Amino acid sequence: MSMHVAQLPGGTGGRTVHAEPDAAVFRRTMGLLPTGVTVITVGSGGATEAVTASSVASISLDPLLVLVSIGATGRLRGAIEDAGGFAVNVLAEDQAELSAVFAARDRPRGLPAQERLGGWVGDSGHVLLTGAVFSLECRTEHRYPGGDHVLFLGRVGAVHVADPVRLPLIHHQGGYAALEH
Fold this sequence. Notes:
Layout: H1 23-30, E1 35-36, E2 38-42, E3 49-53, E4 56-61, E5 64-71, H2 75-83, E6 85-90, H3 96-103, H4 110-117, E7 120-121, E8 127-128, E9 134-146, E10 149-161, E11 170-172, E12 175-177
Antiparallel strand pairs: 1-11, 2-3, 2-6, 4-5, 5-10, 6-9, 7-8, 9-10, 11-12
């Protein structure tokens, strides 16, 4: 991959320039962008699947659409395709342990996953996390290939917001950060 880098008068402006970045450079660079941390859930009971994800974005207000990026070869991709939907659960600042559990390759699945998540099942049939900042129940509207990931657009059918509103768990530079009031 080649990338054109424009040179500013006076040099690089105190920046390191990577004219041909590799995956490691790109990953470190994108780690500079603070993101919320979510657990994407599909199904419930013995069919529960869940994974930690930070590539989530609001896409449209009409219709209500959210985008999630899921590994193309992971088991969650097939679960979303089979179920026709998913739930997005935005973790609160005190849920870092859940983030770590569901980011692991040997993360629980089935009933042990649902029990570990400690949630309830929404009308969509997907586990929703107790204590999450908010949860979205989504029906898959579209899916697109995205390199080593698949991008799912979900039509939001229900929104569950914590009351009182909680502060989100933030990921930045490979670790967790906190928002201040």
